[in-house]
Amino acid sequence: MPRVSVIIPAYNSMQWVSAAIDSVLNQGYRDYEVVVIDDGSTDQTADVLESYGRKIRCIYQANAGVSNARNRGLSVSTGEFIAYLDADDMWYSQKLECQIAFLDAHPQCGLVHSDVTVIDEQEKVIRARFNVETARPVPSGYCLQDLLRRCHIQVPSVIERRECIEEVGGFDEQFMATEDYLHWIMVSLKGWEFGYINEPLAKYRWRGGSVSSNKRLFLEEYGKMFGVLLPALYENRPQAPDLAIIRKRFLQVERELAYMDCIEGHLSSARQRLMRLIQRAPFQYNLYWDLAKTYLR
Fold first, then answer.
1. Residues 6 or more apart from 147 whose CB is under 8 A from it?
2. d(Cα 288, Cα 93) in Å, to the nearest integer?
3. Minimal CA–CA distance to 164: which of 183, 138, 178?
4. How many CB atoms are closer than 10 A to CB 211?
């Protein structure tokens, strides 16, 4: 039984997936299995996967989204550790060796992540060390409040203990853009610490038109996610300062969506969002002004 299961969901990824798989096969650490889930691709992704023969395990399914594909990979894999890699991203050759050693040395950490190199579609480097160059705060240790404020964890940089999956479940399939963010929060809610390695161990590909570049989709899913988290967290931790962070972020996200609705001419939708926010936060007086402005357009 391999110690590490590498899970790669792929959808219409014929242009990228071989680079992702090759970056796994070139790892110095060798105790792993590679599970690729072809999520109903309509291009030649399947042909690319078949060319690897027994080096990888391929699962084919009708298109069901990235969360479902990752969960399918989790269900058929056997490793003690789960390493995530999307089909258009890549790893540096020392990634598995470095992160498995970290997790072995830090049993209190449920997962470990790292800095990443950001590349474009032609593999030109945009940011060699993204977190360092942008001075982004990164979550480490017990970091629930940091996570609630921001998601500065890139999927291809993460290795997670299977024990965490068994505690919190897989990825919520109602989300297609923030499923990873919600999962990290749920792991932290169980009391796990997060490890961080301050060097780039993965290459994250920025592609125009990808899910990660769709601002409205992200905002809508953030709003839905915080709406899900609020009652769940309140039920278990009614006095926790975490609640104030979620309320503030939910308000910010929904207010920004209302602004986008106005800019795009969807005034009825903007008014409905703002009226719902006023019901939740009646003493946020700027919301009343935002609502009034929708009638002045």
1. 139, 181, 184, 185, 188
2. 54
3. 183
4. 14
Tokens of 41: 């691709």
Average pLDDT, the chain: 92
Per-residue pLDDT band for 235 (boundaries 50, 70, 90) equals: low
Q: Name the H helices within the chain.
A: 17-25, 45-50, 66-76, 95-105, 130-134, 144-149, 162-168, 179-189, 215-236, 242-263, 267-280, 285-294
Mean pLDDT calculated for residue range 193-208: 94
**96: closest CA among 115, 83, 109?**
83
Residues 214 and 126: their CA atoms lie apart, in Å, by 19
Tokens of 201: 């161990």
CATH 3.90.550.10 range(s) for the chain read: 4-208
Q: Which amino acid is at 28?
A: G
Q: Write out the two tokens for 245.
A: 């962070």
Q: How many Å apart are CA 203 and CA 154, to the nearest integer?
A: 10
CATH dotted code for 4-208: 3.90.550.10
For residues 39 and 68, what is the distance between their CA atoms, to the nearest angstrom? Answer: 9
For residue 198, pLDDT over 80 is answered with yes
Per the model's pLDDT, the better-predicted residue between 56 and 214 turns out to be 56
Name the H helices within 51-143.
66-76, 95-105, 130-134
- Per cent of the chain over pLDDT 90 is 72
Rounded Cα distance between 170 and 183, Å, is 7
CB contact at 8 A, 156 and 89: yes
Rounded to whole angstroms, what are the CA distances from 38 to 17, 138, 196? 10, 32, 30
Q: How confident is the model at residue 197 (pLDDT cuts 50, 70, 90)?
A: very high
